[in-house]
Structure formats: C-alpha cells, structure tokens
Amino acid sequence: MQRRDFLKVLSVLLLHWSTEEQQITAVDAARAQRNKRIVVIGAGLAGLAAAQQLQAKGHQVVVIEARNRIGGRIWTSTKWPDMPLDLGASWIHGIKGNPLTALADTVRAKRLPTSYDNYITYNSTGKPLSSAEEKRLEEIRTQLFDTLQKAQNNDKDDSIRHVVEPLLAKNEPSYLQTCRFLNFILSSDIEQEYSGSAHRLSTQWYDSGKEFSGDDVLFANGYRVITEYLARNLHVELGQVVQTIDWGQSPVRIVTRTTTFLADQVLVTLPLGVLQSGKVHFVPALPSTKQAAITGLGMGVLNKCYLRFAKAFWPANVDWLEYIPVMHGEWVEWVSFLRAANMPILLGFNAADYGREIEAWSDQRIVARAMQTLKTIYGPGIPEPIDYQITRWAADPFAAGSYSFNPVGASPALRKDLAKPLGKQLFFAGEATEQDYFGTAHGAYLSGLRAAREMLA
Description:
This protein is an alpha/beta fold. It is built from 14 helices and 22 strands.
C-alpha cells in the first residue's frame, strides 16, 4: 500500500473512532443524567418502599436512618423468642385490596386473624355488662355518632369533646353511668383509633380517611417480615441522625452528626412529630404552606403494654377485652393472644392524653396500674405477670408520637401540602402525607410508592 493510500485509510478509521467515541460519551452523559444520586431519609415503610422502586430504575440510592435498626415505627421485638411482638404497627387493617396483603403473600408470611366480633365488655366494677347496660351503651354510642354526623354538616369545626358534651345532662339520675359510657366510647372507638385526644380531634375531619375491607390480621413472626423484605439489596446506613438538609443548592447536602451526603434528589420520610420538633433544619426554610401543614396537623399517641403470664386466667374464646373505667381512657382496650396464637399474653392499649401521661411513669408503676384493672375484672387472686414489654412513642426522639391525626382546624388539604415536592430536589412521604390512609402502615407504604413516582417523573 502506498503512503498516500495508507493515510487515506487511516483518516477514515480515525473519523470512525472519533464519531464512535462521541456517541459513547453522549450515551454516558445521558445515563449519568438519568441515574441520579438519591438519599432517602428514614428506613420505615415509606422510605424502604420508595428506595426499592428508585433503585430498580438504576438510580444510586442510599437510605439513612437515625436508629440502629430499620423499620421506624415498625418494630418487632424478639425479647420473647417464641413470640415475636410488634411494638409499633401490629395489624394489616383490612386485607382485601390492601397492598400489604400482596407483600405478605409474596414473602409467605403466616398471619393470625383477630376479630372485633370476639369481645367481652366489663363495667367499672369488673362485671360483664348486663343486657340493660349493653342496651344503654349502644344507645349512647348511637347518640354520640349521630351528634358528630350532624355537626359535620356545619361549616364550623370544633373538637369532638365539645360537640358531644351536651349529651351529658348532669341532673339526670344515670349521669354517672352515662358519663363513664360516653368516655369509654370516646376512648375505645375514637381516641384509640385516631391517636388524638377528644379535646383536640376535629369533628369535621377526624374520620376523613378511607378503609380497606376484610379481616384484620397479625403477623405470626412480626411486621419485620415486611420491612426486611423491602430492605433487601438496599444500601442502608444506620445511626445517621440528620441535622441539616440544605436544599437551596445542587447537589443537596444532608448533614448528619457524623457525615455529609450529597444528592441530586432527597426523599424525607421523617415522622410528623420529628418535623414538628424542629430538630432537623431546612436551608432555606421550608415555604409557609409546608410549615403550616407541619404545625397544623396533630401527632398522637397509642402506647402498648404487653403482659405475659405463666397461664391464662381470662376467657379463651375472645380476642378483645374491653373495660369501662372510672377515669377516662385508663386501660379500656385489651387484646388476648390466647385464641389467635395460643399464648398467655395480654396487650393493653393507652391512647391520647392518658397514653402520653403515663410515659413519665416507671415500668413498675405502669404494670401495677394495669394489674389493678385486671384484678378488678378477674379478682385479686390472679397471678402476676412473669414479664412485660412497654412502649413510650411520644418520648421516642425519632418518632415523637405514634401516628398523625386531624386536629380542630386541620383539613385534608394540609396533608396534600405536606406531601407536595419542592422543586425537583426535595420530596416528602410518610403516613402523615397520606390523605386517604393516614395513620396506617399501608398509608406509609403507599406514600412511599407515590413519592417514588414523583421522583421518577
């Protein structure tokens, strides 16, 4: 080959290589633009659900969590190896159409059904309600919810307690019974359901959420089977307590006590109570609509006290034990694990004001007060528990409460404002951002999926 021909061929090859290199560089640039660095703050259901979706699309995702465990308000205790117990969320509420049912099916999780139809209610002296008492209780329950429904037709919002107060006529002969029955209904049917005090819950919007139909089921091995499944193959860094989120620049800087993370996008799944505490600083400050949503919504309390006994002394064929106390909200709801799991364990709930109050008590005092109620019902000779487990969600710095509720003056629009992304960098999820399913585990999960869609868009 002559020199002239060689140079001609070489120039063609160089042109081809140059064009190919430019194409490869362009592909890399496009891929780099598509594959973002994403930080998800919080390894609860919302954060893990979103992280899985985002990572599946090829993004570089890191989940940072303040605790030394995953799950957030999903927390399965293994203190009793033969019976894992959930200290946070326990049930799939309504299994039909619930996305958590599909997840539970995927991991083949064993579930234990409980039924609200299997219950017994005891009066203040510890006796099962008589036929007359049952009739009177249902009359008051009907009056209470009729009153609330009528109040919802008014434009003015007010607290549930204030709206139903006229049902108490102090001059009627049965005032004391009516007062106790009314308080029992407020606590068992409303405060334990929505976690807020009747003095704060919005009559207009306390029940604005939706529900799935079907049974309620517990996880035989705890809710951890779901969070562990969602956390598979994810990069999760524990013990990362976030202090500052600087979203006014690109990349976003997330400063924790030990390090700084840089991200193209950030998903905040911090509980409402943590956002309300102000311990996480946003730079620049969040817009007024977002701040109004954070301060306008309520963070409630529902605490648990598990008591384990050597053997059961209560009826074996019931799931729910209800007690009408002298004082409002004291140990009104109990769940028996005898029928569902064949375990001599009782779970007592305390919600709202009383649930928050006793967090300052010692474990021994809480157990003693719980046993006082059980002895009123089943007699002073019942055995003492061989062990116990107690929660204090309001005092937990990484939760600051159990789940959110709608207080007086708070409309569902606040949740929409809380969920709204800020630009293309800062996104929000968590049960408090859910208009339809707030206060639930499936609401947290759905919010994570929604946030992932927004980030991918």
